[in-house]
Design brief:
elongated; 5-stranded parallel beta sheet; 6-stranded parallel beta sheet; alpha/beta; 734 residues
């Protein structure tokens, strides 16, 4: 059958000082390859090797798993990783060499000995996932992908690190480099993404695995550093991972006690192990992460034996390991070593090769991952074919999640409304849409930041995703907005047919803006359900009333900002959001009840802006009134009042500026004719940006100050969001 492939994609005082209090000792034979052609500088050792028996020579050159003496090849491979990173950063004169130099041993063991993947198909579904949460150290990941045989990171790509058009950007980007699962860089985001990936694996395994047919079976591995540990998002996400019992999440904590400002003792002295134990994680400490290969292997083996909780492997390393003058210091964190220190590091580690050189025995050793990866995928495909025969319905559903084939006619499940339908808050209408979609979209799941009963986001036909009920689809994030968004990014990046939504009050997007921005950058189609979208929420007052938020998200690239006015537009917004799998959507929804307006349509929402009523002829209205969300009703009533006075008035819904911008010039002219300068907009938020729509001669009515605590109808009058205000503005213009 054809392959199934995703279409996208302790306190400081307790630390031992012996591992990193001084630069590494000069190298011995231990760091040298046992292949004669790679030992030009060590004639005595080469002669000894040559004199040894053929049997011994063959044994010394066996793959890692076969011979105890192959530690030298591991050393050589680890140093290859280090120097690929050193050389790339040096050539770019920019980057972070310290982390790759310190984390090379754990990276080597993960990619060479532990992880299952197919370099020639980076999107094979059942691959293990690797997340570099400390994304500044991305040359570690690029070096590993290069050695493993990924076509996305060839030698030329390493040489073009951080350059225009390169597939090796300054931080990992999933949309640029196949093999990179998520976009990381802002610290803490990656480990939260990893929680989402592990959640997705656990959820799909619970839904689709059968006794003797474990078709979903892979791990999520992450490397995070001290900076990630300091960010609050990491604690939020790891708290949830422990609560959910994500046993196939294994995180490696690069414990090197160095950050940009210096030793972490100046600001970060908590006992990380104790904290993670309190979060419900299994914790292991590898005290020698520089050369303790067997310790790292044993830790991973122990972690995989723990099935009911995630594992944190704290690995004490030396940042910039091997650099005689910069190791174990902040100076190796974020800048190139410099030519002299590169030469000194080569001498210190016994590395006789030029820049970007991969020794033949290392290259030969890593080359096995290409046939091995193909065999793993072939084996899984055969397993899936057998599964498909036994469980055709489940197989078809899982296949749709892997390949993002939405069910035919899914959009017909969305509720429909008429002007005679009872008025309701768009948050309630949103819940009707959510529950309708959950019945027909097998990958639809999500939840709220402890506000499900207020955001109206509960899926009534499903229970809560929990440690012992991972097949359910209601995600209870607790009061953790930031990690909620990042976890949903991870879910989306796991499988394109998984469509997560998450919810809170619109004003609290301030807590999760970094995750939303990464949704947009990563092309992760998360649906953000944001209720209480304006001063219309009323008495909770200005702390809870969003003002600048709509405008700020309109300024963010690759995201859809949708503010529907009624049930029809809410259904249209969900249709748009589900269809846009490579860009996120924000739905700003009302707390107050709104009528269902004549003239609104799903098709209009898909165009972003459209005419809902018009009594003009020849595309020449006297005035154009524009609104979004709850204020579209005000614009419509103002239009009616002006028409009663003999005016030709067009009323336009601008539910999504981004979608409107994408329409043809002809269509935009048909909605907002350039010859008509009399334009009035009304929106219960900042007027920033509306000059784009109303023009230099138009009038934007909005709220450019903080709100206040009072009933919604009082606030609308006090802030001038009224029919009379729109009518007066229109009369001033025409």
């Amino acid at each position: 059958m054809a392959s199934l492939t995703s279409s996208s994609q302790a306190s400081f005082l307790s630390r031992p000082s012996s591992n990193r209090s001084s630069p590494p000792l000069p190298p011995t034979d231990h760091h040298v390859s046992l292949s004669p052609r790679d030992l030009p500088s060590f004639p005595a050792l080469r002669a000894s090797f040559t004199r040894s028996s053929p049997t011994l020579r063959r044994r010394l050159l066996l793959p890692i798993s076969a011979a105890a003496t192959d530690v030298s090849l591991v050393d050589k491979s680890v140093n290859t990783i280090r120097f690929l990173a050193i050389d790339a950063v040096e050539k770019a004169k920019s980057g972070h060499p310290g982390l790759p130099m310190g984390c090379a041993p754990m990276g080597h063991i993960l990619f060479d000995e532990v992880m299952q993947y197919n370099p020639k198909n980076p999107y094979w579904f059942n691959r293990d996932r690797f997340i570099l949460s400390a994304g500044h150290g991305c040359m570690l990941q690029y070096a590993l992908l290069h050695l493993a045989g990924y076509d996305s990171v060839r030698e030329d790509d390493l040489k073009n690190f951080r350059q225009w058009g390169s597939r090796t950007p300054g931080h990992p980007e999933n949309f640029e480099t196949p093999g990179v699962e998520v976009t990381t860089g802002p610290l803490g985001q990656g480990i939260a993404n990893a929680v989402g990936l592990a959640l997705a694996e656990k959820h799909l395994a619970a839904r689709f695995n059968k006794p003797g047919n474990e078709i979903v079976d892979h791990y999520t591995y992450a490397i995070l550093g001290d900076g990630c540990q300091m960010e609050g998002i990491a604690n939020e996400a790891c708290s949830l991972a422990g609560h959910w019992g994500l046993g196939k999440l294994i995180a490696f904590y690069d414990d090197n006690h160095i950050s940009i400002d210096g030793d972490t003792e100046i600001a970060f002295t908590e006992n990380v192990e104790t904290r993670f134990q309190g979060l419900g994680w299994h914790v292991i400490w590898v005290k020698n992460g520089n050369t303790g290969y067997d310790e790292i292997r044993a830790a991973i083996k122990e972690a995989k034996a723990v099935k009911d909780k995630p594992t944190l492997i704290k690995i004490t390393t030396t940042i910039g390991y091997g650099s005689p003058n910069k190791a174990n210091s902040y100076s190796v964190h974020g800048s190139a070593l410099g030519e002299k220190e590169v030469d000194a590091t080569r001498k210190n580690l016994g590395w006789p090769y030029g820049p970007f050189h991969v020794p033949e025995d290392v290259k030969s050793h890593w080359s096995r991952h290409i046939p091995k990866g193909a065999a793993l995928e072939t084996e899984w495909n055969a397993k899936f074919a057998d599964y498909e025969k036994k469980y055709p319905q489940e197989a078809a559903e899982l296949k749709s999640l892997i390949t993002v084939n939405l069910p035919t006619g899914w959009e017909k499940s969305l509720p429909t409304y008429t002007p005679e339908s009872p008025a309701d808050a768009t948050r309630n209408l949103s819940q009707q849409c959510l529950n309708a979609l959950a019945k027909v979209l097998p990958g639809f799941l999500g939840g709220s930041a402890d506000l499900a009963s207020s955001n109206m986001t509960l899926l009534k036909m499903f229970g809560d995703f929990q440690k012992n009920a991972p097949e359910e689809r209601n995600l209870r994030f607790g009061v953790r907005e930031h990690s909620m968004g990042a976890i949903c990014n991870g879910i989306t990046c796991h499988s394109p047919g998984l469509i997560p939504y998450c919810a809170t009050f619109f004003v609290f997007t301030d807590y999760m803006r970094a995750a939303i921005r990464l949704s947009a950058l990563s092309q992760a189609g998360v649906i953000y359900v944001m209720t209480h979208d304006s001063i219309g929420l009323g008495e909770d007052g200005p702390t809870h009333q969003p003002i600048e938020h709509v405008a700020s998200f309109r300024a963010m690239p690759n995201i859809l900002m949708l503010r529907p006015a009624d049930g029809t537009e809410t259904a249209g917004a969900y249709k748009v959001a589900v269809e846009n799998r490579k860009r996120p959507s924000i739905l700003a929804l009302s707390r107050q009840k709104l009528p269902h307006l004549p003239g609104t349509s799903v098709e209009g929402v898909e165009k972003g802006g459209y005419v809902i009523s018009d009594n003009s002829t020849g595309n020449k209205p006297d005035v154009i009134l524009m609104g979004t969300g709850s204020e579209l009703e005000i614009a419509a009533k103002a239009g009616e009042k002006l028409r009663e006075e003999g005016r030709a008035v067009r009323v336009v819904s601008l539910v999504s500026w981004e979608l409107f911008d994408e329409q043809s010039e002809e269509y935009k002219e048909s909605v907002l004719p350039s010859e008509v300068s009399a334009r009035v907009s009304i929106e219960a938020g900042s007027t920033f940006g509306w000059e784009k729509m109303v023009g230099s001669k138009g009038k934007a009515i909005g709220v450019d100050s903080f709100g206040a605590s009072a009933p919604a109808d009082v606030l609308y009058k006090k802030f001038g969001l009224t029919v009379d205000a729109v009518v007066a503005a229109a009369k001033d213009l025409c």
